[in-house]
Amino acid sequence: MSILETAAQFGTYAVMAGVLIFALGVVTLRNLFHCALCLAAALIGTAVLYVVLRAEYLAAIQILLYVGAVVTLVIFAIMLTEHIAQKTVRQNNSQSPLAIVGLLGFVALLAGVILKTPWPVTQAALKAKVSVMGLGEALMGAYVFPFEVISIILIAALIGTVVIAKKDDAQ
Amino acid sequence: MTSDQIIWVPLLPFIAFIVNILAGRWLKNRAALCSIATSSIACVIALPVCWKVFNGAHFAHQGTWLMLGTVPLKFGYLMDPLSATLLFMVTIVGTLIQIYAAGYMHGDPRYSRFFAYVSLFMSAMLTLVISDNYLLFFMSWEIMGLCSYLLIGFYFEKASAANASLKAFLTTRIGDIGFLLGFLTLFTAIGTLNFAQMNTIMAGAHGGPDALNTGLLALAALLIFCGTIGKSAQFPLHVWLPDAMEGPTPVSALIHAATMVAAGVFLVARSFSLFMVVPNILPIVTAIGTITAFMAAFIALTQNDIKRVLAYSTISQLGYMVTAMGLSGLGAGTFHLITHAFFKALLFLGAGSVIHGAHVQDIREMGGLFKKMPQTAITFIIASLALSGVPPLSGFWSKDEILLAAFGSGNFLVFGILLLTAFMTAFYMFRLIFMTFFGTARNHDVHAHESPSLMTVPLWCLAVGSVVIGIPGSPFMHHWFQKFMAHMVHYPEYEPSAFVMTCSVVVAAFGIGLAGVMYLGQKHWAAAVARTFPSFYRLSFNKFYFDELYSAYLIKPFNALGRKLFGFDEKVIDGAVNGTGQNTLFLSGLKNWIDKYIVDGAVNFMGTAVYFLNSFTKRVQTGFVQNYLLIVFFVLIVFLAFELKF
Amino acid sequence: MIGIPLSHILIFSLILFAIGVYGALVRRNIIGILISIELMLNAANINLIAFSKYTSLSPETGQIFALFVMAIAATAAAVGLAIVLALYRVRKTVQADEVNLLKW
Predict the structure, then answer these.
(1) CA dihedral B527, B532, B537, B539 (to 10 degrees)
(2) Which has the closest alpha carbon to A166: C86, B330, B253?
(3) Who contacts B521 (Cβ-Cβ below 8 Å, separation ≥6)?
(4) E strand or H helix at B72
(5) Collapsing DSSP states into helix, strand and coil, what is residue B195?
(6) How far is C101 from chain A (nearest CA, A)?
(7) How many helices (H) and strands (E) does chain B have?
(8) How far apart are CA B259 and CA B345, in angstroms?
(9) Model confidence band, residue A85 (pLDDT cutoffs 50, 70, 90)
(10) In chain A, where are the structural domains located?
(11) Nearest Cβ partner of A53 from C8, C10, C53?
(12) Which of A59, B93, B211, B435 is within CB 3.0–4.6 Å of B363 for a Cys-Cys bond?
């Protein structure tokens, strides 16, 4: 094991830790605008992990779609609905102790399962390469039907969003 | 040959009534035009039909209106000599009086209302005249009563007018009830209300009256005659007519002199075949008529209100007509009805003109008006001459026919009374004329002036009518009218008698002369006569105390009875009703308690129980999305735990 | 090649998911909830890609599913935020516990 690999390994764990920290920031910070920024950071960290997992195309999409579009959208929504300097408003409701207890149980349960399960990791799979061309062929070939369905959903969502967000004429 | 257009005759004034009552506010003075126009058109439609009837034609048409069990009730018109005569008179006199009224009522705030009522009256009167059965007759009869009520009380702000209209309505009501019961009895007896059918049945019964229920028929005739007594103001129900003079003068002329009051006589004429069949009814009719004629003339001698004198004169002349009917003189009675309509309408219109010009009604305040209103005076004198029976004016011929009937049938008592009445008639009419138009003006505050031509032209038309309308019944036309009427129902006719004519002319001349002497020459004579016969004078001046008698013996007891009944009603019936009410209230209170605490209690208990139980479970439904999400999440954990551990 | 066992990545994504769930459960602001849902979807995506990397013979499958999830996530974000805006316009609030019309 080379020093480079060790460094890469350590870096990966550091990115994971960073993502988790930013994710915690997303759910705990009082200022929603900060939350949105944390979300962007966590998503960028995830994109880094995608690169590590040899899914470069996905990483690019992640940056473009999530960080570029979704986070921007969220920030717009926050600015439209919220006064950013609203410090006095309580941000969490009263069920967080219960939620924490449940989540700990949930995590423990699933972590146990994950650690116990003998995952069929194969060297062949690890060696396999995914090219953008391969993804495209799969989308247009085996997965063409879900692809079309997704496109319809996108159209429906587009129209629905316009209709919902549009100002009512009557008012 | 059809003459169905006759139904337009009553229909047109009815349209005028609808228009005037609904649109009178906008029509204003054109309301008169509307009424007069419809009336004139009705006249134009009616006269050719009347002419055909005068030439011997006979029209009738009827349609089923409804079924009374198995008996169809038919409405229709009947144009026989009688109705043609009346139609002729009513349309002409009615139209002329309406033209006159357009001038007389000018400036009245309820101008259009007045013409609406008059048109409704015309419609009802014309329906009555051409109707062919008792029911339709009765319906229009009642509408006329309503119109009479409305028009007498036209100046309803005046208490006297309101009371007079009430008095007229209630008094005629007594007769109307009799009439209603009468024709219902008749329907029971002979099974028809149609005049023509009744005439046929009665004519058939002449041979053997046993075929008919004579008792029932007598009752029917008597009750129908009650209608006449009420409507034509015969003794003892005559008291309403003098008071009816509170209405506008054209109304007095149209309704209370020329047409409506004549409807009572017309009713007897219509039912003449019935009266001929039933024994002993005609003497009653004669008696009532004679008493009325004499009594009213006697009262008229001393009255001082110009319209009241004419009102009593009307009653007296109606008594004449009824007497004629009672003496089987259908032709004579109808003839007098027609002539009387013309000259009495003229007299009333003349009186209206005097009132319009001089603004007083008491003849003691008038005098010397001849120079100031010559046209009114001349026409008034013509009418008075006609009424007094001066040849060759119309009144002479018709009165002569009645006297002839009395003389010819051998009722010399009646003949004598009628002659005396004729004398009194001439006397009081010329007393009126001399006091009004001649002599010197007694009240110098009265500044009379001639009426506008809208009023004098109808006066002249009626004056011409009063002169010539007697010709068809005179010897110059060989008593054409009497023969014409005899087509309908057979009744005895009498040879003209020179003695009767002479008597008639003599008493009329004597009456006029005496009036001239007493009121133009020896003016102290009148007071001397009053002093000499104080009881007679008071009796006449106080109208035989009829109003006082009715007040003391009918109205007061009725009021007392009413109060007694009211007390009874209040204490006993209301007590019973209230007792029942209170019992019900108590019972319902009890039921309410049971309902509230037992029935409702059970229902509410169920509700409360459910409410109590769900007060635990409903806490789950917080309405917070995240609560639900948490629950879902826990359930998921539980499922996972089950799935993975076991 | 990379010396990170699959289970570590899975546990990372599990924790990320749990954090997302926590956010969805306790955040009062509806936009906060939506953000937390994005986190959860992200964790699922990591799982998909990790599995396809470590175990599958045709690694495109997992990546394509991740792609679909991203599309759906974007859709959800857009529609969800539109609903939030509409709600804000009507009720003048974006707090989830103040929108309680379903309450008994």
Answers:
(1) 170
(2) C86
(3) none
(4) strand B71-79
(5) helix
(6) 18
(7) 28, 2
(8) 9
(9) very low
(10) 1-90, 128-171
(11) C53
(12) B435
**C54 closest CB neighbour out of A12, A73, A125:** A125
Degrees, nearest 5: CA angle C62-C68-C73 = 125
Pairwise CA distance, residues B496 & A99, whole Å:
133
Contact B641 A110 (CB under 8 A): no
List all residues of chain A from 95 to 114 with a beta carbon under 8 Å from chain C.
95-96, 99-100, 103, 106-107, 110-111, 114
Other beta carbons less than 10 A from residue B463's beta carbon? 25
Distance CA B350, CA B366 (A): 14
Contact B621/C at CB under 8 A: yes
Distance between CA A39 and CA B395 in Å, rounded? Answer: 125
Q: Does B639 touch chain A (CB under 8 A)?
A: no
Name the interface residues of A facing B (CB cutoff 8 Å).
93, 95, 98-99, 102, 105-106, 109-110, 112-113
Alpha helix locations (H) across chain A? Answer: 3-28, 32-52, 56-61, 71-81, 96-116, 123-127, 132-140, 144-165
Q: Is residue B300 within 8 Å of B241, Cβ to Cβ?
A: no
Interface residue of A1, A10, A26 to substitute, partner C, most C CBs within 10 Å: A26
Closest CA to B298 of B309, B284, B289, B306: B309
Give DSSP secondary structure letters for B123-178.
Answer: HHHHHHHHB-BHHHHHHHHHHHHHHHHHHHGGGTTSHHHHHHHHHHHHHHHHHHHH
Chain centre to alpha carbon of residue B40: 22
Distance separating alpha carbons of residues B94 and B9, to the nearest angstrom: 12
Residue among A11, A6, A9, A15 at smallest CA distance from A46: A15
Cβ-based contacts of B625 with chain C (< 8 Å): 96, 99
Residue B486's nearest CA partner among B335, B338, B337, B341 is B335
Q: What is the mean pLDDT of each run of 10 residues along chain B (646 residues)?
A: 72 87 79 86 86 81 75 81 86 88 83 88 89 88 90 86 87 89 86 81 63 77 88 84 85 82 87 82 88 88 86 90 86 87 88 83 78 85 87 83 84 87 89 83 73 83 85 76 73 76 86 83 73 76 76 80 84 86 91 88 89 81 81 89 77
Contact B480, B405 (CB under 8 A): no
Hey, which residues 19-48 in chain C have their CB within 8 Å of chain B? 21, 24-27, 33
Return the beta strands (E) in B319-459 as ranges.
none
A15 touches chain C (CB under 8 A): no
B629: nearest CA in chain A? A99
Q: Are B363 and B386 in contact (CB under 8 A)?
A: no
Identify residue B228 by its one-letter amino acid code: T
Judge whether C96 and C29 are in contact, CB under 8 Å: yes
Q: What is the ipTM of this complex?
A: 0.88
| Structure tokens, B62 | 């009827």
Could you count the other beta carbons within 10 Å of the beta carbon of residue A18?
15
B564 three-state secondary structure: helix
CB-based contact B623 C104, cutoff 8 Å: yes
Locus of tokens 């257009």: B5
Determine how many CB atoms are found less than 10 A away from the CB of residue A7: 10
- For the whole prediction, is pTM greater than 0.80? no
Name the DSSP class of B573: I
Fold category of A1-90 in CATH:
Four Helix Bundle (Hemerythrin (Met), subunit A) (1.20.120)
Q: How far apart are CA B258 and CA B627, in angstroms?
A: 99
